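User: Can you recover a sequence for this backbone? Please restate the input before giving your answer.

Assistant: Of course. Working from this structure:
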């Protein structure tokens, strides 16, 4: 049984839409069979109809993991780098970094010790760094905290970006609604954020910019919210982007990729000193197909 709580951005969606987004391998026929058998509860009440769900609803799903995940334990996850202390995987879309069924739970079966050193959103793809022992985990968490690991992302945005820009603003996280707000001026409970980018390519016909984004402060949804605030919404972003644009480009998940990790240690790093200066990067820049010079 899986317990879920409806987040703010999913308010008003059909139950089928919500569950197939959470469980991409869930067959729609399996979903309707579960309804007929009343194997789904909303707020403690069994239902037999594809109802609309609302913010803060509690969902209980009594469908086996084999059907929910369609044996995704056999899902192929690319390994980008590995040594005796760390491993970096290329996370696919739709998979959480941690949780009951997640990148961590899948890959832990192959290691005696494996823990993530940071997280990216479920629908953000790309590099996730794991530690293979406790000593490495402690060091890397500290290095992330002290901004000694530089993270770059590729973002496919709507709008014309500058050749480069360094953005500063203030962010507030509303945990109850699972959303963040951006302000240009400091406010109570808002944290300062810094995001910079360089333009990789721009398609004037489609008005799409492909950006190399550097995250200088690691706040929740920072890149997505900050770029949207600067009139550069990430295509496919259902929370901070535009429904009309996402529909126009036929994109259902944000075009955002954790593209590279570079170790820039400022102090002794113990058993990981050898990593200083190392840059781990995906071979191919993602989302370039969206800038191809052809009609939408």
């Amino acid at each position: 049984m899986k317990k879920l709580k409806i987040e703010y951005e999913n308010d008003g969606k059909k139950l089928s839409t919500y569950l197939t987004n959470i469980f991409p391998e869930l067959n729609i026929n399996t979903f309707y069979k579960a309804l007929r058998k009343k194997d789904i509860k909303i707020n403690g009440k069994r239902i037999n109809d594809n109802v609309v769900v609302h913010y803060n609803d509690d969902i209980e799903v009594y469908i086996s993991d084999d059907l929910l995940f369609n044996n995704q334990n056999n899902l192929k996850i690319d390994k980008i780098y590995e040594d005796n202390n760390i491993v970096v995987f290329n996370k696919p879309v739709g998979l959480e970094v941690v949780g009951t069924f997640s990148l961590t739970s899948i890959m832990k079966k192959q290691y005696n010790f494996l823990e993530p050193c940071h997280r990216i959103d479920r629908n953000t793809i790309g590099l996730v760094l794991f530690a293979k022992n406790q000593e490495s985990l402690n060091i890397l968490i500290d290095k992330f905290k002290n901004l000694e690991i530089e993270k770059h992302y590729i973002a496919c945005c709507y709008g014309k970006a500058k050749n480069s820009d360094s953005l500063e603003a203030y962010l507030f996280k509303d945990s109850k609604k699972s959303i963040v707000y951006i302000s240009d001026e400091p406010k109570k409970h808002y944290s300062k954020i810094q995001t910079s980018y360089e333009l990789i390519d721009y398609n004037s016909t489609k008005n799409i910019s492909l950006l190399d984004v550097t995250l200088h402060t690691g706040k929740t949804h920072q890149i997505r919210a900050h770029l949207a605030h600067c009139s550069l919404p990430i295509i496919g972003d259902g929370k901070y982007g535009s429904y009309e644009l996402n529909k126009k480009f036929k994109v259902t998940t944000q075009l955002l990729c954790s593209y590279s990790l570079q170790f820039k240690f400022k102090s002794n790093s113990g058993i990981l000193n050898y990593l200083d200066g190392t840059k781990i990067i995906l071979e191919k820049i993602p989302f370039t197909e969206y800038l191809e010079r052809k009609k939408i």
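That completes the design. DSSP finds seven helices and 15 strands in the chain.
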